[in-house]
Design a protein that fits this description.
globular; two-stranded antiparallel ribbon; 6 strands; 31% helix; alpha+beta
C-alpha cells in the first residue's frame, strides 16, 4: 500500500471518528441512541449481517472482504464447559454457570438509571458472563497443556500501555447515563499460523437496547475508534518500514 493511500485511509477514519463522537451526531440519534440511516448513508457506511459459518475463502471473496477469520466451531464442541471441574469447596460452585434471569422493573420506576434496574448494570453482567464463557472463567475439558480458551484461540487482552490507545475516546463513554458504553479489548496473536492478523476483538456493553438492522452510537464509535487507532498505531521494530506508522 502506498504512503498516499495509507494517509488517505487514516484521514478518512479520523474524520469518521470525529463525526460519530460529535455533539451534532448526539442530537440526531434515534430511540435507544441508534445512528439514523441518513447519517450512515452520508458517510458511505453499510450494515451487513455477518455469517459466522462462512469459511475464510467465502469471507475474502466479498467486496469489501470480511477479514476476520472466525474460529472453528469444533473448538467449542471439543472443549465444552465441565461443571464437575468446579472445586467442591467453592462456595458458589456451579451456580456461577447459571445465567441470572432478568427481572423487569415495575411500572413507573422513577429515575431508573439510578436504581438496581439500571440497563447499564444488566449489560455489564451479560458482558462479564459472555467473556467468561468464551475465554476463561468456566472450567472446560481442555486438551493437555492448554490453559484456557484464550490460549487455545490465541486471543490476548489489550492492556495499558498499548499502542492502540493513542486516544481512548470512543472505547469508553460514561455520560450521559442514558447513553453510556465501555469496551473490553482483545486481539489475536500477532503471528498466527504464519499469517498476520491486525484484528481487534471488542466486547462492548451499552446502557440502551440494541435493535436488528441498526447500529447504536456506542457500537459504531467503538468500531471506528479501533480502526482509526490501529491505522495510526506505530509499527514495532520487528516489522518492516519501522520508520513509518
Amino acid at each position: 500500500m502506498s504512503s498516499t493511500t495509507t494517509e488517505q485511509i487514516r484521514n478518512r477514519l479520523d474524520t469518521l471518528w470525529k463525526v460519530v463522537l460529535s455533539s451534532a451526531t448526539d442530537e440526531q440519534l434515534e430511540q435507544d441512541n441508534v445512528i439514523p440511516d441518513s447519517l450512515l448513508k452520508a458517510h458511505n457506511i453499510r450494515l451487513s449481517r455477518h455469517t459466522f459459518t462462512a469459511d475464510y475463502e467465502t469471507n475474502s471473496s466479498y467486496n469489501p472482504p470480511i477479514l476476520f477469520c472466525s474460529r472453528a466451531p469444533r473448538l467449542m464442541r471439543e472443549t465444552p464447559i465441565n461443571p464437575q471441574d468446579f472445586d467442591e469447596n467453592c462456595p458458589v460452585g456451579d451456580k456461577a454457570l447459571k445465567y441470572p434471569n432478568y427481572v423487569a422493573p415495575p411500572a413507573g420506576v422513577i429515575n431508573i438509571y439510578h436504581t438496581r434496574w439500571c440497563p447499564t448494570k444488566r449489560t455489564v453482567s451479560a458482558t462479564k458472563y459472555l467473556e467468561k464463557w468464551a475465554l476463561n472463567g468456566f472450567p472446560r475439558r481442555l486438551p493437555p497443556g492448554v490453559v484456557d480458551m484464550a490460549t487455545n484461540c490465541d486471543i490476548q487482552w489489550v492492556g495499558v500501555p498499548h499502542p492502540i490507545y493513542p486516544d481512548s475516546r470512543g472505547f469508553h463513554r460514561s455520560w450521559p447515563v442514558t447513553n453510556e458504553w465501555e469496551s473490553r479489548i482483545y486481539e489475536c496473536g500477532h503471528m498466527l499460523e504464519q499469517t498476520d492478523f491486525p484484528h481487534v476483538i471488542l466486547i462492548t456493553h451499552h446502557s440502551c437496547n440494541g435493535h436488528e438492522g441498526s447500529i447504536m452510537q456506542g457500537e459504531l464509535a467503538a468500531i471506528i475508534t479501533a480502526m482509526r487507532n490501529r491505522a495510526d498505531q506505530p509499527l514495532t521494530l520487528a516489522q518492516d518500514d519501522a520508520g513509518d506508522k
